[in-house]
Design goal:
Elements (H helix, E strand, L loop, with lengths): L5 E4 L5 E8 L3 E5 L5 E5 L3 E5 L9 E3 L11 E3 L1 H8 L3 H7 L25 E7 L9 E8 L4 E10 L2 E10 L3 E9 L8 E9 L11 E6 L22 E7 L2 E2 L12 H7 L5 H5 L1 H5 E6 L2 E7 L2 H4 L8 H18 L7 E5 L6 H12 L5 E4 L2 H4 L3 E5 L2
Length: 384
C-alpha cells in the first residue's frame, strides 16, 4: 500500500485515495469530498494500484499438483461479499498485485519430427526391485506435436466400462493412477481410444486410434520387463498405443465373417486341421525338474481365428469344447499336469471348467495355478 492507491473500507461503506501514513499502522484516506479519514491498515483493502492497472484477484489454489488444475479467479466484488461472512479469512486471502501468479500460458512448443503420432502407456516401479510388494505409477505419454484426447476402458468379456479420460498436451505425459500387483487383476485388457489435433493452427489429419491392449501380469514380476527409456530416469515398461502413425497391433485380430471351421467347432465337429493349426499356437509345454507341464491358453484370440459375428455364448461354447479336447487327449496319462489359462473376466469360463471337472472328470484333481507364473485366472489340473 502506498500514496496514490485507491482503497476501500472493509467494515463500512466508502473509500478513497491513500494520501499519507501515521504511526501505529494508521493510513490517511482522502475521500471524494477532500476529507482525510484516518483508518487502520487492516481495515482497508487496495482496489486499484497506482502502478498496476489490474484489480487484485482472489485465487482458490488447487488441492494437489495436478498439471491440469488452473487457479480460479474471483472478482473483487465477489470476494468482498464473502468478507461480510468472514472478514478475518478475507484479509488472509488477499494477494498483493505484485504477488499475483502468472496466468498466461504459452502455446506448447513443437519439436522437429514430432508430427507423427507416438503414444504409450508406461508402468514405472515405485519400490525399486522389490517385486514381491511392488507398486507402479501408470502414465499416459504423448510423444508428438498433437494434443491427444483419450478414453481408456476396461474390457469385461463382451462389454467394457470407462476407466480414465483426459487431454494430454503435446510432448508431455500425465499420471493416470498408482497400482499394486493385485490391482492389475482388474486391468487384464484395456481398450484405448484416442483422437489427435492441434489448436489455433491447421494440421494434417492423423488416424483415430481404437486398440485393445493386454496386460500380462506375469511380466510385472520380472526385472527384465522394465528397461531404460527416453521418458523417465527410472526403468519402465512401455506399452505402445500408436507409433509412427501406426496403431499398435490389437491383441485380438478380427477377421471378416465366421469361417466354416468355427461353425464346425461350435457344433463339436473340430477338424484335424484345427489340431495342427490354432491348437499348436495355444498349447505349449514347460519342464520343471523331470516333470513336463502342459500350458493351454483358452483366451478366444488364441484358439479362434476370428470372433467377428460370434455371440458371447458361442465363444464360450467354443472355449469349453477346446478344454474338453485337451482333457480327452491326456485323459489316460496319469500324473500329467495341465494349466488352463482362462482369465478373470466375470468368471463364466472358469465356472464352466470347474463344473466339467466336478462332474465329467471326477477323478482329476484341480487347484488355482501359480499367479506369479501364469498371471491372473489360471487353473491347474492333474490327470488321475
Amino acid at each position: 500500500m502506498k500514496i496514490g492507491d485507491k482503497v476501500s473500507f472493509l467494515n463500512e461503506v466508502g473509500g478513497g485515495i491513500v494520501s499519507g501514513f501515521q504511526s501505529g499502522n494508521i493510513v490517511l484516506v482522502e475521500d471524494e469530498d477532500g476529507f482525510e479519514i484516518p483508518m487502520r491498515m487492516s481495515e482497508v483493502v487496495v482496489v486499484q494500484n497506482e502502478s498496476y492497472d489490474k484489480k487484485p484477484k482472489y485465487y482458490n489454489q488447487p488441492k494437489n499438483e495436478d498439471k491440469a488444475a488452473k487457479p480460479v479467479a474471483k472478482s473483487v466484488k465477489a470476494a468482498l461479499s464473502e468478507a461480510d461472512e468472514n472478514e478475518a479469512d478475507l484479509a488472509a486471502e488477499i494477494i498483493e498485485p505484485a504477488d499475483l501468479p502468472i496466468t498466461f500460458m504459452a502455446e506448447p512448443e513443437e519439436r522437429k519430427g514430432g508430427d507423427k503420432l507416438y503414444a504409450y502407456l508406461a508402468f514405472v516401479p515405485l519400490n525399486g526391485t522389490d517385486f514381491g510388494n511392488q507398486r507402479f505409477a501408470v502414465f499416459y505419454i504423448n510423444d508428438s506435436n498433437y494434443y491427444q484426447q483419450f478414453a481408456i476402458s476396461i474390457r469385461e468379456n463382451a462389454g467394457c466400462h470407462l476407466h480414465k479420460t483426459g487431454l494430454v498436451e503435446p510432448n508431455t505425459s500425465i499420471l493416470l493412477e498408482e497400482l499394486s500387483l493385485t490391482d492389475l487383476n482388474d486391468r487384464e485388457r484395456l481398450l484405448v481410444q484416442m483422437i489427435s489435433f492441434k489448436q489455433g493452427k491447421s494440421f494434417m489429419r492423423r488416424p483415430v486410434v481404437d486398440v485393445e491392449l493386454r496386460i500380462d501380469g506375469r511380466k510385472f514380476y520380472k526385472v527384465t520387463s522394465f528397461v531404460e527409456n527416453d521418458f523417465f530416469d527410472e526403468n519402465a515398461m512401455l506399452l505402445p498405443i500408436v507409433e509412427d502413425d501406426r496403431v499398435a497391433e490389437p491383441e485380438m485380430q478380427l477377421g471378416n465373417g465366421v469361417g466354416q471351421k468355427i461353425k464346425e467347432a461350435m457344433m463339436g465337429a473340430v477338424s484335424s486341421k484345427d489340431d495342427d493349426g490354432k491348437a499348436i499356437e495355444a498349447v505349449r509345454t514347460k519342464t520343471v525338474g523331470n516333470e513336463e507341464i502342459i500350458i493351454v491358453d483358452l483366451h478366444a484370440h488364441e484358439i479362434i481365428d476370428s470372433t467377428t459375428g460370434m455371440k458371447p455364448v458361442e465363444i464360450l461354447n467354443y472355449q469349453k469344447d477346446y478344454f474338453n479336447k485337451i482333457m480327452k487327449k491326456y485323459q489316460n496319462k496319469q500324473g500329467q499336469k495341465i494349466v488352463f489359462i482362462h482369465g478373470k473376466g466375470e468368471g463364466v469360463l472358469r465356472a464352466a471348467i470347474i463344473n466339467d471337472l466336478t462332474y465329467r472328470y471326477k477323478r482329476c484333481k484341480y487347484q488355482d495355478a501359480s499367479f506369479q507364473e501364469y498371471g491372473f485366472g489360471a487353473t491347474q489340473v492333474t490327470i488321475r
